[in-house]
Write a structure and sequence with these properties.
5 helices
Length: about 180
Amino acid sequence: MKISLFAPYGLLHREVGVMGLLSNFLSKSGAEVVLLRCDGAQRACARDAASVACRTPFSCAPCMQEQGAIAQWAGIKSKQLSSFLSPDDVGQVSAWLSGVKSDQLFRVEFRGASLWEPCREQFLQRWNLEGGQEISSDQEQNLRALFFSHVTTRIASERYISVVKPSLHFVAGRSEEHTSE
């Protein structure tokens, strides 16, 4: 049995500890368990909400360390999220999102699903907004970065699932953001 875990925000979600315990048990019971790790290759992240400053590799380091610790503690293998993205994926998503007009941002969809819905809470929290108001150019840039991260994470996750073919896939946080149909 192949089991996959995705805890993209490290220890941000409380269920990660339980996922680690379950992973350790399943691994010792003979299952192949792999943690899909975010390796800081995204333009925006839910953990950015605490700071309006630009992201740097240093803002990702603690989270990547947490994810590595989870894998080590659980005694499982891990794979990097970005290894399931190609430069063409990044270029195509960037070009596509750059072509979306500002007045269409809140209605843009990827594969038939709204991008605003899964990114709304992160965006509003980061900018201390309630929704419905005009957004600044900095806020628009951040929203585009969140959309980029959401789309590329979905592409990489789907590719990972199609390659690894896990029997079960556990996701910490809002699972509808990172699972494929």
